[in-house]
Sequence to fold (572 residues):
Amino acid sequence: MGGQLALALGKSRRALWTVGLLSALLNILMLSGSFYMMLVYDSVIPSKSEQTLFALFAMISVIYVFQGLFDMLRGRMLADIGARMDRDIGTQLQKAMTNITLRLGRKPEAGADAMRDFDQIRNYVSGPGPGNLMDLPWIILYFALLTLLHIWLGVATLVGAIILIGLTLYADRKTRAPTESLARHASKRAAMLSEQQRHVEMIHAMGMEGRLWLRWNHNNNAYLAAAARLSRTAGLLGMSSRVFRMFLQSAVLTVGALLVLDNKATGGIIFASSIISSRALAPIDQLLGNWRGLATARSAWNRLEKLFAAAPAAALTTTELPPPAASLSVEKLAIVPPGAQRPVIQNIHFRLSAGDAAIVMGPSAAGKSTLARALANIWQPALGSISLDGASLAQWDSDRLGVHIGYLPQSVELLTGTIAENIARFAEPHDSAAVIAAAKAAGVHDMIVAMPQGYDSFIGVEGANLSGGQRQRIGLARALYGDPFLVVLDEPNSNLDAQGEAALDRAIQGVRDRGGIALVVAHRAGAVARCNFALMLKDGAQVAFGPTEEIFARARAAAPGQAQVVATGNRN
Ligand SMILES: Nc1ncnc2c1ncn2[C@@H]1O[C@H](COP(=O)(O)OP(=O)(O)OP(=O)(O)O)[C@@H](O)[C@H]1O
Fold:
């Protein structure tokens, strides 16, 4: 204990104490049934007093009402503790989920696994499990009472309890590995299925369904085997504990009967001790019955604590910096992609001022997208820094910084929703004027209003209802939304026609005119005529940086005929 989850649970300390107190009351009240029985047998029946019987019955009825109330209250409090944990850990969990993908390079599904793990913990905390655990110490009270009735009754129940505890520990050992294995296979199974669903068209077109199904099935068989192993073990243990408890109840009854035959106890004691001993063993029995829930929650807890330790959320910055307005400087930058061992770009060094736009060029795998990701605050520098107005990006809270950054990834990545929601980055409610201004800046307004539902058109799952060019232009509008200071466009022209390219040119000029900075990754220099600076990368190194005309003149001189022609119209 001591990790984030324990801290979150610790915030409900007072509620946990109250649950403990309610458990104490419940366990004491639960004895009343046995006492009632003992009194009826040993006092009421010999004295034949109906009045006493009715009085006792009224008392026990009231006690049962309170028992029900306390039980309900305990259930509600545990549900509240689960909900509070959810509120307290929610933001941290979301940040950790982002971090494990962005910083540790885990597959995106790891985030969904973390959420599932947390659901399991919350479900356990809000369910009857913690109540069972809190009932455990009260077993001692029942033993004490049984021993007071007669030492042999205590001994018989104690032996039974030891055997049941042994079974519980055995269950723990036996279920630990299959529980872990089940979680691993379940996550892999879900990830494979979701990937196949995402790429169903390509898979279908190229006849890969059968092969992928076999691959999925292979993993699914492992999942099913782990599930079967777990349920066999749990079933066997559940059955053993049930049978053993029945045996034990009869054993205690037999001990009681022997004592009565020996004139060492009254008849009422037989029944009372039988009830008390079954109450004493009930918490252990319930623990065994719900073992799977506890084992799953515990392994989920361990995984999540490891996740929080490995990907701690960035410390919240308390001082809000003014919006950047003057410069972008990149100094001796090296980036190691998450999960990679070596830097894929190093020693990148340049500076741009408000009103500048730079084209980033280079052959495939030169590191252009890596630089774009670093500038968009996705991947952190392994060495060197990226600063806006002199302050490194690390000094910003990522959500606050995001407002000042426009990013169009190579794969565009629209989200399921309407055009307006996507352009407005899902701001709620969105600013219609800003959405329209961004769409106009990206030259896509006319195309949007020509659609039957205009800005409210549903774009389908991840933009599936749009053409490649439409997706790219709406992605550009999203990057321009809110006039961010730094606009990073990764191959924004790969799907554009001549009209789209002209709109892109105007958009870049627009960023420059309003005093922003644009960085445009492009393979064709001609496609981006409005950039006054050029950055050349090759094999992760900076080959050249400077005014576009100068860089291309140098390139033409070094390799005549190979250098691409710089488009005319480059305004400095
Ligand atoms: N997540 C990653 N883990 C490890 N290596 C990576 C990762 N992403 C990119 N790389 C490597 O970094 C190098 C540069 O990739 P990058 O995508 O930045 O190139 P690029 O210049 O944008 O290429 P292209 O023009 O083909 O898009 C490549 O060798 C690639 O294998």
